[in-house]
TrEMBL record:
Gene3D superfamilies: 1.20.5.2700. PANTHER family: NADH-UBIQUINONE OXIDOREDUCTASE CHAIN 5. It is found in: Endomembrane system; Membrane. The chain crosses the membrane at residues 6-24, 36-56, 76-100, 112-131, 137-157, 169-188, 208-224, 245-263, 275-296, 303-322, 328-352, 373-394, 414-438, 459-483, 495-517, 642-663. The keyword Transmembrane applies. It is a multi-pass membrane protein. This is NADH-quinone oxidoreductase subunit L. Residues 68-115 form the NADH-Ubiquinone oxidoreductase (complex I) chain 5 N-terminal domain.
Length: 667
């Protein structure tokens, strides 16, 4: 088969698997798991074949007219360059791992058939975004992912946290999608086409009349989808969904879509220095703010959620200095180790019976109970902290090198201010990342207290996936010298200056956190036996997770933090801890600035509808009823009365005629 045919099958197979899984969910439940895994696995194999055939060479372009529009046509088009080929491999491989892991994680879940079908549809939508060569077709995949995330995040709909999180994710991302859609139409109007290749040609020829306006409109959608400041608040709350869904969203779909979109259309954004500066500031605030927030979270998955926001900030920072090679390289390595982190966190939550780091810190022997999750999560955390030679080190260094070149004027593709902004924020974020990664590892695996409950080894479907993802988390960064062809022949190797600065910042963050933990443990370790409601670990993992999420707020008063005086994050952040734990009160700000005015407006509309509009409607009805009563009184059924009224009426008419005649004659 041709490369084009194989590329068409890559998103098509998971889509067909989703349809078949939904159809077989009730009639043939035994086929649900094979229909979830086999199409996604086949898609991953085909994506690898497409990447090998593409080989970082000429872009594969193919198109057929989808529908005439009367103005700008819409084509069913493929546009596969080196970036698209590698990102598609990441998406398909991570989705396959998630599907395999989910067969054990949700083994007794009655809603597993619909869950598996939605994951397959989610995967197909992201692959459509990756391979699409037409912006309108890309938008279809973009919006399907939003719908899928709503249902998947709300999978545990019995819990109020899941219901609220799914609605919040949908509304916040839609808030960004409105200007995003306007920006797409404005871009296509200037370019005269929705085809990505045509848009890039129009940018090169200078035919985009308002590049800054278009870029800023598109950035609003990217901020919502990729959880960048100020539209990032939905992502931590989305941790109320199943852990495999969190892995899929954070590693390979949804949040990666926005970064990938900017990388695909980077010349559009590079045409506006103002847009790149805005993107740099957005990335810097996101990196630093999310790092501080992660250091204060108690829910292990919320720590990882803020970590994702910060790592996406690194990618956005690379794009802000017009280096899409560094951005996509970090996207690939991050997808591997972040999927591993979330899937390992699912094992940890199941073994500990809680999602609270404060509760885990008061257990001993957790690392011995789950050695697979312990060792693989250690690898992933080292990659997250960018410690050499793990994958995150090389990709994060690529971002810092790109920022350094722009800051020092070696690259003129972006403003110097953007380079300095990303470089300084990136180094500070490196320190914070190592700090919260160290804190998570110490609290989860170096606790002291009663023995962690033992429920035997986790299923092979869960542990095998962890070791599979540990391989790229460890070694993917070492391929930087072989990926140049896929990344516009742009070198990705680290430099001595940024390597020393970045690694040094990470080591400082890790050492400070370890020192704070040791000091607090020696001083207060046995004085604060923090109470926690621990779910029963002998239940299926999905049940344990749902109970753990639901029990966290009643026990600790907050889904985000716990009143734990032995937490090293509390010591390191000092008075900033309370604000960081709540995400710097952005939700409260949005509630005051947007939610309350909308609710007030809705209340006003309700009042006007009930008290004004309904009053007129009820008045018209009452008037008709009153008139009917009067007319009914005249209907007595007495013939003499009718004749008397008729005679009286005739007399009145005769008198009126005579009077009017005299008046007219006198005039």
């Amino acid at each position: 088969m041709t490369t084009t045919t194989l590329a068409v099958l890559v998103p098509l197979l998971p889509f067909l698997g989703a349809l078949a899984g939904l159809a077989a969910g009730r009639t043939a439940p035994g086929f649900v798991r094979p229909l979830a895994i086999v199409p996604t696995l086949a898609s991953a194999v085909l994506a690898v074949v497409v990447a090998v055939r593409q080989g970082g060479g000429e872009t594969v372009d193919a198109a057929t007219r989808l529908t005439p529009t009367g103005s700008v046509p819409i084509d069913l088009a493929l546009h596969i360059d080196g970036f698209a080929a590698l990102v598609a491999v990441l998406v398909a491989v991570v989705a396959t791992c998630v599907q395999i892991y989910s067969t054990a994680y949700l083994r007794d879940d009655p809603r597993y058939p619909s869950y598996a079908a939605l994951v397959s549809l989610f995967t197909a939508a992201m692959l459509l975004v990756v391979y699409s060569g037409d912006l309108m077709v890309l938008l279809v995949g973009w919006e399907i992912m939003g719908i899928c995330s709503y249902f998947l995040v709300g999978h545990y709909w019995e819990t109020p946290e899941a219901r609220a999180a799914s609605l919040k994710a949908f509304l916040v991302t839609k808030l960004g999608d409105v200007p995003f859609l306007i920006g797409l139409f404005a871009l296509a109007t200037d370019a005269g086409t929705f085809r990505i290749s045509g848009v890039l040609d129009a940018v090169a020829e200078g035919r985009i009349e308002h590049p800054t306006l278009v870029a800023l409109l598109l950035l609003a959608g990217v901020a919502g989808k990729s959880a960048q400041f100020p539209l990032h608040t939905w992502l931590p709350d989305a941790m109320a969904g199943p852990t495999p869904v969190s892995a899929l969203i954070h590693a390979a779909t949804m949040v990666a879509a926005g970064i990938y979109f900017v990388a695909r259309l980077l010349p559009v954004f590079a045409a506006s220095p103002a847009a790149l500066t805005v993107l740099a500031v957005m990335a810097a605030v996101t990196m630093v703010g999310s790092g501080l927030a992660a250091l204060a979270q108690d829910d292990i998955k919320r720590v990882l959620a803020y970590s994702t926001i910060g790592q996406l900030g690194y990618m956005a920072g690379a794009l802000a200095v017009a280096d899409r090679g560094a951005a996509v390289f970090h996207l690939l390595t991050h997808g591997a180790f972040k999927a591993l982190l979330f899937l390992a966190a699912g094992v940890v939550i199941h073994a500990a019976g809680t999602n609270s780091l404060a509760a885990m810190a008061r257990m001993s022997g957790l690392a011995r109970r789950i050695p697979d999750a312990y060792w693989t999560m250690t690898v992933a955390l080292l990659a997250l902290a960018a410690i050499p030679p793990f994958a995150g080190f090389f990709s994060k260094e690529a971002v810092l090198v790109a920022a350094e070149h722009t800051a020092l004027g070696d690259s003129t593709a972006a403003p110097t201010a953007a380079g300095w902004t990303v470089l300084v924020a990136g180094l500070l974020a490196a320190l914070l990342t190592a700090a919260y990664a160290t804190r998570l590892w110490l609290l989860a695996f170096r606790g002291h207290g009663p023995e962690a409950p033992d429920h035997g080894r986790e299923p092979l479907a869960m542990t095998g996936v962890l070791w599979l993802l540990a391989v790229p988390s460890l070694g993917l960064g070492l391929t930087f010298g072989y990926l140049d062809d896929w990344f516009d022949s742009h070198p990705l190797e680290p430099t001595l200056v940024t390597a020393v600065l970045g690694t040094g910042a990470g080591l400082i963050g890790g050492v400070l956190t370890y020192g704070a933990w040791r000091g607090l443990r020696a001083r207060d370790g046995d004085r604060f036996p923090l109470g926690a409601t621990v779910a029963h670990p002998d239940a299926p993992p999905s049940v344990v997770e749902a109970e753990a999420v639901e029990s966290h707020t009643p026990v600790y008063g907050s889904i985000a933090s716990a009143p734990d005086p032995t937490d090293p994050g509390r010591l390191l952040l000092g008075p900033l801890h309370r604000h960081a734990a709540s995400g710097f009160h952005l939700d409260a700000v949005y509630h005051a600035a947007f939610v309350r005015p909308v609710l007030a407006g809705a209340e006003l509309v309700r009042f006007l509808d009930r008290e004004v509009v309904d009053t007129y409607v009820r008045g018209a009805g009452a008037g008709t009823q009153w008139l009917g009563r009067l007319v009914r009184r005249a209907q007595t059924g007495n013939v003499q009365t009718y004749l008397s009224v008729l005679l009286a009426g005739s007399v009145v008419l005769a008198v009126a005629v005579v009077v009017l005649s005299n008046v007219n004659a006198g005039s």
